[in-house]
Amino acid sequence: MKILMVCLGNICRSPMADGLMRKKVQEHKLDVYVDSAGTANYHVGGAPDARMTETAKRKGIDISGLQARQFAVADFDTFDLIYVMDHSNYDNVVRIARNEADRNKVQLILELLPNQMEIEVPDPYYGGQDGFEHVFDLLDKSTDIILNNLSHE
Ligand code: 4NP
Q: In the chain, what are the domains?
């Protein structure tokens, strides 16, 4: 099983989702490969945003070693599940899908949460620290559900 987390810049939301998921599969000794990518190329090669890295660190997750990369069509071949953070990410990923099988791999990550009012993980880049905490909480809940789904396969 291979899971890809996707956002716009691959420096805030998807690295956090990636770090959370990696930690959880490791803790549960599951054979799952996790990675993340951005639909844009602005930050390729860069480290995650310092505010996200700090938020993650306080929660016991080290995302400092991640390096941003851009989503590519080959990711549809590599990954089984592709979780996107918002509708814009969804559109950008699905735009380069080659067929129905590619499209079927793509899902808004918050659709996993039952009774969820928000359907998009908000982009915290231009906001304050509370935005990063909120992103962490949403992604912590979502990755719990992914983990639970994997454990019951
Ligand atoms: P992310 O956040 O998509 O969660 O990594 C962003 C990071 C950078 C930019 C936008 C969103 N940017 O415009 O540079």
A: 2-151 (3.40.50.2300)
